[in-house]
Amino acid sequence: MSITSLIKPLFLRRIKAWRGKAIRPEATQCRELQWLLHRAAATLQGQTYGYSSIRTYEDFKNKVPVSQYPDIRHLVERIINGERDILWPGAVRNFAQSSGTSDGKSKYIPITPDGFRRNHYQGGFDV
Prior knowledge:
- 60% of the residues lie in helices and 6% in strands.
- The chain is mostly helical.
- A two-stranded antiparallel ribbon has the order 1-2.
- The longest helix is centred in the first third of the chain and has 21 residues, at 3-23.
- It is globular.
- The two termini are 24 Å apart.
């Protein structure tokens, strides 16, 4: 028995999952938004904007203002100082740092355990 025959079912499941998402991108995006809102509902940001009451993209658009990094810099600084449950549940120990910005200040982007698992690791596996 070859290794290909052992891992082929796993790859076929991932291909099927991605095809389903590609066929219905709007539904996929709505599900992802709901997951994100549910996960972050108990955070400071989630409570501030009422994530638990948001049911649709229109609700989200009406309740959560568009913001730029300077608008949330103070929140990221709190996360860097070890505060939990600010923008995302739990503690954040990893940050990406921008290489240069227009305002001359570095930007620190929190990378959560969920971000590693759902994006970095899963994306690498899928590739």
